[in-house]
Amino acid sequence: MLRIKNFDLLAIGMIFLICVFSYGNNIHNEPLLDDVNNITSQDAKLDLKSSIPIRGLFPELKDYHRPFNSFRPLAYLLLLGLHGLLGFNYFAYHYVTIFLFFIYCLAIYYFAREIFKDKNLACLAALLFASHPINTMMVNYIVAGIISIYALLIIASIGLLLKYLSCRKRIFAFLSYLLFFCSLLFHEIAIIGVVYIMMILMFHNKYTIKKAFRIWIPYLVISLFVFWLRPNEAMTVKEFITAKMTNIPMSMAVYAASFCELLFWYCKALVSLKDIVFVYSLQPKEVMVVSALIKGILVLALFLFLFLRKEKEFRVSLAWFLIGFVPLLIAGFTIPALGLTIEPYWFYLSSLGFFIYIAYALLKLKQYCRPGLWNILIFVIILSLSLATRSYNNLMKTEESYVRHWLNVVPKDRRAYYYLATAQAQKKKYKEAIENYNKAFLGDKSDVEIYANLASIYMGLGNIDLARAMLSKAENINAYDSLIYNTRGKLLLLTNDIKSAKESFIKAISLEQYFLLDPRFNLAGIYLEERDFAKAKSLLQEIIKQDKYNSTALGVLIGVYMETKQFAQAVELGKDIYAHNKNSAVLTNIAGLFAEKGYKELAFGLYGKAIKFDRKYVPAYIELGKLYGNINQLDKAIQVWEYSLQLQENEQVKELIAKAQALKNNIIKGKEK
Q1: Cα 605 to the chain's mean position, in Å?
Q2: Can you tell me whether residue 227 is helix, strand or coil?
Q3: Please, what is the end-to-end C-alpha distance for the chain in angstroms?
Q4: What is the pLDDT of residues 270-320, one digit of tens each?
Q5: Local structure of 547: helix, strand or coil
Q6: How far apart, in whole angstroms, are the C-alpha atoms of residue 406 and residue 436?
Q7: CB-count burial class (<10 Å; 0-12, 13-18, 19+) for 670
Q8: Which residue from 206, 578, 618, 667 puts its CA 20 to 30 A from 81's CA?
Q9: How far is residue 140's CA from residue 352's CA, in Å, rounded to a whole number?
Q10: φ, ψ for residue 400, nearest 5 deg
Q11: How far is residue 339's CA from residue 341's CA, in Å, rounded to a whole number?
């Protein structure tokens, strides 16, 4: 058991404060990129046979969608659990990612303290890591929270191994193997852990190669076993080389130069704090080979010079950092259409070596500074890092603002154009969306989504022929994609072919790769038109099960209950929303439905709950005032509306107050007569 001492409490408190300060302004940020799809993906959904297609334990999947590029069953189950708990309440996911990030920073503190036996070094390294903007992806990009867990498991596994080597109790060795096994089931990049374990044995424990190998071999066996477990649909190493690496023809010199450019970008981002993005890509043919090789040689020469320092802290931390770049040699080929790519999260584990190195250098500097001056320097450094992190959080408030930043850094990244176009289409900026979608084609199966989205846009513009042409192109790529059937269903609705539209929506649901709300809403709408309330109700309940904050589905379902005279069920659902829902907008919308149907007590309760959770949510005050007005409590209505005006100027509210006041005066005059 770890002993918590006064310094530990101080360190934990400071790390917590830095995490909260650095990321406290991201709570209300929108989900980014493919967050929604990953949270509700088929792999992370309800069927464990598709969530964990482990070789030999379940039948081989007969799936005609794109094959798995990865095997992350524990990550899928975590997303499944979080989605079941939080639904589509994305703000709550940010609390989870901040918490996981904080726990990982604590792990860095204890790990560095164990390795270097220096609590000051460990604390400073953890604070630098917690405040640096290179880690913004792990908190702002919701599904990246799993990265914190894989890295945490690797560190814990190494810590337990060191505990076993010091006391020789086999339980610690067993737990170390178990956590390492789990880390590989969270993310395949955990394979780098086998290299870190060997490094710790050689550098930290100073074992001979023979002795280190005996201790290390179980971790290698576990790694091979996990790769054997990968489902048949998962991409093999051979397939990766065939489908990815050979698709970027280049000489060894160009490859080396490209690798140097990627390495230089990441190191520059660490030091300068500029141009940090989730994915950085470049086309090898555009790389200035000589210039890139010179930069790479200079960086490697600097690393070599630093590595020759005699201090253990310098050598171990630098070796830890450099090992993290090994996966880049292959992982850079992940998306051939973009050229070579690099993602900062690949170095989430290795970058702690950089922060330990900087922390040790700063502690060495302390010997030449007055204590007060050194403390001020550290405060300024950490505050500057935290402010830079908060600045990046602001860039990520919306998908569009982040993607524009991304394009400023990597102007030719076609995926960025896809996400920008999607954000613009949602805001009905159709002309800009079409232009950017046309810049986003990668020439692979992902183009289906672009064509389907273009078809939806052309439908919105009333150009049915172009919409059909886009769907035809999508079908040529993958005739079994659920998005095609969903979009075709909407097109058939526009042409009043209700029967075919229904069939298309049903097909979309049966083929879906991600849980899609849209075909369920559309199909429910058809059933409501046909007055088939049972089927409509079933679809709406499916939507609410996935997204318990979906006010549209909740409202329509309550309407269905009312229409079918199931008043008790409607009230029961309203009470359930009152008891468990904390979304002020949802509570206000549902309250309006009950107010309209005469359930005033429940409506008052829902409005009150909406105001309780958000004291500044003006629509709740407006609707609450209307309810008071409808039951002739005009004084209370005016009081509520006047309070809302203190929160926000609103001409509609001023008109309501004027009408209520006039009505009140008329009533008074009537009584006087």
Answers
A1: 34
A2: helix
A3: 84
A4: 999 999 999 898 888 877 877 777 877 777 777 766 666 667 777 788 888
A5: coil
A6: 14
A7: exposed
A8: 578
A9: 19
A10: -65, -45
A11: 7
Q: How is 239-303 classified by DSSP, letter by letter? A: HHHHHTGGGS---HHHHHHHHHHHHHHHHHHHHH--S--S-EEE-GGGS-HHHHHHHHHHHHHHH
| Cα–Cα separations (whole angstroms), residue 592 to 543, 600, 624, 625 | 21, 10, 9, 11
Please name every residue paired with 58 in a beta bridge, in sequence order, or none if there are none.
Answer: 55
Contact criterion met (CB below 8 Å) for 16 and 131: no
Mean of pLDDT values over 89-99:
85
pLDDT on residue 51? 32
3-state secondary structure of 341: strand
The continuous run of DSSP H or E covering 278 comes out as none
* Cα pseudo-dihedral 335, 336, 341, 346, rounded to 10: 50
Dist. CA 168–CA 182, nearest whole Å: 22
- List CB contacts of 303: < 8 A, sequence separation 6 or more: 318, 322
Burial class (CB in 10 A: 0-12, 13-18, 19+), 118: middle
Cα gap 23→139, rounded to integer Å: 8
SS3 273: coil
**Cα–Cα–Cα angle for 342, 180, 323, nearest 5°?**
40
CA distance 348 to 186: 14
* Rounded CA separation 435/440 (Å): 9
Condensed to tens digits (0 to 9), the pLDDT of residues 433-489 reads: 999 999 999 887 888 889 999 998 998 888 999 999 999 999 898 888 888 888 898
Indicate the burial class of 24 (C-beta count within 10 angstroms; 0-12, 13-18, 19 or more): middle
Residues near 249 by Cβ (< 8 Å), separated by ≥ 6?
none
Residue reference for tokens 């596994």? 157
What token pair was written down for 129? 């890591």
Reported as a single tens digit per residue, the pLDDT across 612-669 is 888 888 888 888 888 888 888 888 888 888 888 888 887 887 888 888 788 877 776 6
Q: Which tokens go with 604?
A: 């008052």
Orientation angle between helical segments 399-409 and 371-395, nearest 10 degrees? 110
What pLDDT does residue 305 have? 67
Q: In angstroms, how far apart are the furthest CA atoms of the chain?
A: 107
Q: Are 109 and 122 a contacting pair, CB within 8 Å?
A: yes
Residue 195 and residue 201: Cα distance in Å, rounded?
10
Residue 58: pLDDT band (50, 70, 90) is very low
Quick: pLDDT tens for 591-606: 888 888 888 888 888 8
Calpha distance 377→536 (Å, rounded): 63
Q: Please name the residue ranges forming H helices in 478-516.
A: 482-494, 498-511
Separation of alpha carbons 148 and 280, rounded Å = 21
How far apart CA 299 and CA 533 sit, in angstroms, is 67
- pLDDT band at residue 178 under the 50/70/90 scheme: very high
Task: List CB contacts of 548: < 8 A, sequence separation 6 or more.
Answer: 87, 88, 89, 580, 581
Residue 469: how many CB atoms within 10 A of its CB? 15
The whole-angstrom separation of Cα 595 and Cα 272 is: 57
Contact by Cβ (8 Å): 302, 271: no
What is the reported pTM? 0.78
Amino acid at 561: Y
Point out the least confidently predicted range of 103-117, 457-471, 546-560. 546-560
